[in-house]
Automatic annotation (TrEMBL):
It comes from the Bacteria. This is DUF4240 domain-containing protein. It comes from Amycolatopsis speibonae. Residues 2-125 form the DUF4240 domain.
Length: 150
């Protein structure tokens, strides 16, 4: 969906304020979409998250106060959302080479998880029904078997 990346835009995601501002901009863009377009947006989001669900990205450590920790599956999901918030160019670079993904593994980007819910919340407000995403790509960590194989 070519419109997906225009809705996402290109956003700094250095801290929680950046993430909140990006989510607000995306939410306002989703508000004008039809239910069918919201479904396609959500489906493309799921596919984008699935494509960067890869072992080498999940194994990048988290650094807090000089200490190194492993990413949890939740933190990995938040980091993938933050990567998408950064925009098509950054996402493409991470997808191609993995370079730069470490920037999204930070407590300040955990709010990027909100990206997962924007389209479905908008869809529900417009239709009064829940968005059925069961046919979409799975977004849980380790869902992309090819991305986790050695």
């Amino acid at each position: 969906m070519s419109d997906f990346w225009s809705v996402i835009g290109s956003n700094p995601v250095r801290d929680a304020d950046d993430v909140d501002a990006a989510l607000e901009r995306i939410s306002s863009r989703l508000d004008v979409m039809t239910p069918n377009t919201l479904e396609r947006f959500a489906e493309f989001l799921h596919e984008a998250l699935f494509r960067i669900d890869r072992r080498e990205l999940a194994e990048i450590p988290v650094y807090l106060s000089g200490l190194e920790f492993e990413q949890t599956s939740d933190h990995f999901q938040y980091a993938r959302c933050a990567c998408i918030l950064a925009g098509e160019k950054v996402y493409g670079e991470v997808l191609e080479s993995g370079v730069g993904f470490g920037l999204f593994i930070a407590p300040a980007t955990q709010g990027a998880e909100g990206l997962l819910y924007l389209a479905s919340e908008t869809y529900e407000r417009k239709t009064g029904e829940r968005l059925n995403s069961q046919s979409f790509f799975p977004v849980d960590s380790m869902s992309n078997v090819q991305g986790w194989s050695d």
